[in-house]
Amino acid sequence: MSVYTQLTDDQFAAFCQSFGVSFARAIPITQGIKNSNWFIQTTDDTDGAPSYVFTLFEERPPADIEKMAVILNQLDGKLPVAAPLAVIESEAARTDNDKRYVIHYEDKAITLVPCLAGAHPEQTTQAMCHEIGAALALLHETLQALQPSEQYGVPLYPWSDVRDRESQFMPSDEAKLMRDIWHAYTQLPLATLPKGLCHLDMFADNTLWNLSLNNSQKGEARLTGLLDFTEVSAEHYVMDIAITINDFCTTWGDAEQGESVNFDRSKMAAFLQGYESKRPLGADEKRALPVMLAKAAVIFWLLRLNVIHYNRTEGRTGDNIMVKNPDLMKRLSAYHWSHVEKAQNTVFVLLNTHSNTDQNNQIVGVFSSITQAEQAREQLIRDQLTPDQLSNHSHFLIKEYTLDQLL
Ligand SMILES: Nc1ncnc2c1ncn2[C@@H]1O[C@H](COP(=O)(O)OP(=O)(O)OP(=O)(O)O)[C@@H](O)[C@H]1O
Ligand SMILES: N[C@@H](CCO)C(=O)O
């Protein structure tokens, strides 16, 4: 359980009063690792179900949380988000454009948001991946209204500093893996890849779903909540896509399951189909995705090491501190990197098996991706064949080779 700061009932009552809510009871929330969260029952909650969630932001400065409130208001009505309640101000203090959503406690921000229905999924389905893909695209599109995006997002975390600190203590093969992925990322066309406000932490445990037995059996779980907007920043959309795919399309094994990491490519295809139903991806974004998946896993590998580092340096210990396993993200990084390396070492050869010039197959072209080879074959067929020959072009074959097979 992650409740880092203890508050008394009197403090809860006073803070809730600032938002016009009559406090009855605070129940600590067990999920979450960054902030302290409680469900709040009000004196009107006769059925015992809490109406609100009270969050004390342990890391982010209050100014960042104010930005988050603006973002949530922009999304409210389009996506299932919990927009923060406004602070009740005296008439004299209030102006229409000057709503405050945050109160302060020891230089930390507090918000009160409506409690959304639903539960965190223990596992995902292809249908859920499709739905979260569409939701993320809608989030990207909707937040384009807030310009310039850098002004509305929080600054990106300095992950390269964390990398430099942590890689000193890593076995050399792990440090090399991180370095190789980082280098491949810097080789992407970062200056031209589309950018805008991104969630950057859309993990399954930051989403809520209607998972009633009936719905799950019919494969009809519906998205009821998107949570935790503290990391919203201006970033490449394809990085946000990679972060979300990494969690939604992976089955994470616990210690008893040997900490297995099983990435499901059919779930990724469903996610991308959902995403592209709202926002089609550019060819450069598609090409960047394999490296982005590896880089996104590296970022969360570092994020988890960073949480352990700060828990240690700030003396935060005990049963109520939840830490996620960095090794799972390391394994996912290695998995994605092996795909990138395989793709880098693979070529697709277009062959004409009916060549007039030679008994052997004639090489028409060598391509770095299957898509490029297929496009070349289609072009060749269109350019060279008469319409009645179009039906018989099976002599153009594409074969996959690793580079060492060609030497
Ligand atoms: N509006 C809400 N409605 C229902 N439950 C909520 C709401 N807000 C937060 N929660 C619950 O509180 C948990 C923790 O919230 P949140 O993810 O914002 O905390 P966190 O400490 O920032 O977590 P993490 O660091 O894991 O992302 C959520 O996983 C969810 O179970
Ligand atoms: N989603 C993060 C937790 C903090 O945001 C993780 O899985 O490490």
UniProtKB/TrEMBL annotation:
Reactions performed catalytically: L-homoserine + ATP = O-phospho-L-homoserine + ADP + H(+)
Entry EC number(s): 2.7.1.39
MF annotations from Gene Ontology: ATP binding; homoserine kinase activity
Keyword Ubl conjugation carried by entry: no
Alphabetized Gene3D superfamilies for the sequence: 3.90.1200.10, Phosphorylase Kinase, domain 1 (3.30.200.20)
Entry's family note: Belongs to the pseudomonas-type ThrB family.
UniProt protein name: Homoserine kinase
Source species: Psychrobacter aquaticus CMS 56
Gene name per UniProt: thrB
